[in-house]
Amino acid sequence: MDAAVTPVHKSKIKCERRTFLFVCCVTIGTLLMFAYYESITPSTRDKLHFKPQFNITGTDVMVFLHIQKTGGSTFGRHLVHDLNIECMKKNHTRVSNSHSCFRPNTMDPTWLFSRFSSGWKCGLHADWTSLKECVHTKVPSLPQGERKYHYFTILREPVARYLSEWKHVSRGATWKLSYILCNGAKRQLPICYSGWDWTNVTLEEFMDCTENPACNRQTWMLSDLRLVSCDGNGLSRDEMDSIMLQSAKENIMDMPFFGLTERQKDSKFLFEYTFDLKFKVDFIDHNQTYASAVRLDNVTMEGIKNRNKLDIELYKFAVELFDQRLEQAKMNMNQS
Ligand SMILES: *[C@@H]1O[C@H](CO)[C@@H](O)[C@H](O)[C@H]1NC(C)=O
Ligand SMILES: *[C@@H]1O[C@H](CO)[C@@H](O)[C@H](O)[C@H]1NC(C)=O
Ligand SMILES: *[C@@H]1O[C@H](CO)[C@@H](O)[C@H](O)[C@H]1NC(C)=O
Ligand SMILES: *[C@@H]1O[C@H](CO)[C@@H](O)[C@H](O)[C@H]1NC(C)=O
Ligand SMILES: *[C@@H]1O[C@H](CO)[C@@H](O)[C@H](O)[C@H]1NC(C)=O
Q1: Is 108 helix (H, G, I), strand (E, B) or coil?
Q2: Is this model's pTM higher than 0.85 or not?
Q3: What's in the keyword line of the UniProt record (predicted)?
Q4: Is 287 within a domain?
Q5: What local confidence, expressed as pLDDT, does residue 205 receive?
Q6: Whose CA is nearest to atom 5 of ligand 1?
Q7: Mutate to test the pocket of ligand 1, among 50, 53, 57, 61 (most ligand atoms within 8 A of CB)
């Protein structure tokens, strides 16, 4: 008997068609996902191909977004001590680190907005949103036109940064004066302790505070919080997280420069390349920090990673972007 089209065959053909459709759908889906993913990867979106001109002799301003425990103070001191720029201590009678650094051949210090030059004029360790809403109100306005602001920051491996913040808080740091300026309103940050400070806090207690601003600090401090109504009102946790992470990625892509704590020498090179300035000293790659001396069991380590998921993803993205920019900068240097 000719077994041409038995029910079994039919169902097999049907099945093959289904498989074909399924494969098609998966392929198209994958392509769409890839296209979307591509749209937010560093390679296609980064603007490193044009090097934004920082005009120090004009009216441009460099804004240092200093996130806690990323080595920002060290970098900030380099900015006022070690650049090929003329600086002057602000008050000789006072034990202070504040310096005025001037645009070449002027007494105009407005080019640098940072802790050791302008001070914390927009709040202690001001985040991206606060700076965007505040910096232009603290820098003398121009008779005509807008100033060009060049933001930059330094990112650090998130587990080490979180541990370092815990250590710092347990030694008595509070950052009580920190606030977020968002849509014109000042918001206090959540405080995890009662009493004056959180001296001697254990890592367990530090981790138990779910509202701890140390969690994913780099992501929330680098994102535009106006996109989540400043406090996430009306959004689920997941929605808020993904909007903040996406925004933080975009904001670091928009920064002409950002550094990595673990890559001091490379960060120095990229800063110099981007802004056409030179440091008079070498930077040192530290590989021993307080954080690296902390020994953790697996459960604690997983707990910390869970509390810093966004930062871990942001940092991964940042390292990739940093490497691309570094490679590009070295290529451009060799060509010129
Ligand atoms: C920088 O700004 C100064 C003063 O506005 C201007 O004269 C100069 O042409 C600018 N330089 C560049 C490279 O744009
Ligand atoms: C410099 O610091 C001293 C001591 O803190 C203070 O008395 C003085 O007013 C300060 N001078 C200026 C110009 O700020
Ligand atoms: C913190 O711990 C140290 C060492 O155990 C102790 O000397 C100090 O009194 C503690 N401080 C507070 C505020 O509990
Ligand atoms: C620390 O960094 C130095 C300089 O980059 C390197 O030579 C050394 O091997 C590093 N040490 C460790 C333990 O990673
Ligand atoms: C901790 O994690 C390491 C690496 O993942 C694993 O080899 C080790 O067995 C774990 N230890 C415990 C106590 O779970």
Answers
A1: coil
A2: no
A3: Glycoprotein, Membrane, Signal-anchor, Transferase, Transmembrane, Transmembrane helix
A4: yes
A5: 97
A6: 58
A7: 57
Q: Provide the 8-state DSSP code for 198.
A: -
Task: Quick: pLDDT tens for 97-120.
Answer: 789 999 999 999 999 999 999 889
pLDDT in tens, 202-230: 999 999 999 999 999 999 999 999 999 99
Least confident interval from 269-273, 324-328, 331-335? 331-335
Q: Which domain CATH number covers 279?
A: 3.40.50
Which residues form the domain of 58?
45-335
CA distance 274 to 260: 15
User: If you take atom 9 of ligand 3, which residue's CA is the nearest one?
Assistant: 200
- Which residues form the catalytic set? 125
- How large is the greatest C-alpha to C-alpha distance in the chain, in angstroms? 109
The reply to whether ligand 1 has any atom less than 6 angstroms from the CB of 55 is: yes
Number of domains observed in the structure of the chain: 1
User: Within a domain: residue 31?
Assistant: no
Q: Whose CA is nearest to atom 4 of ligand 2?
A: 94
Tokens 């008050």 found at: 91
314 CA distance to ligand 5 middle (Å): 26
Q: How many angstroms separate the CA atoms of 272 and 274, rounded? A: 6
In a domain, 5, yes or no: no
Give the ligand whose atoms come closest to the C-alpha of residue 53: 1
Residue 13 falls within a domain, yes or no?
A: no
Which run of H or E residues covers position 5? none
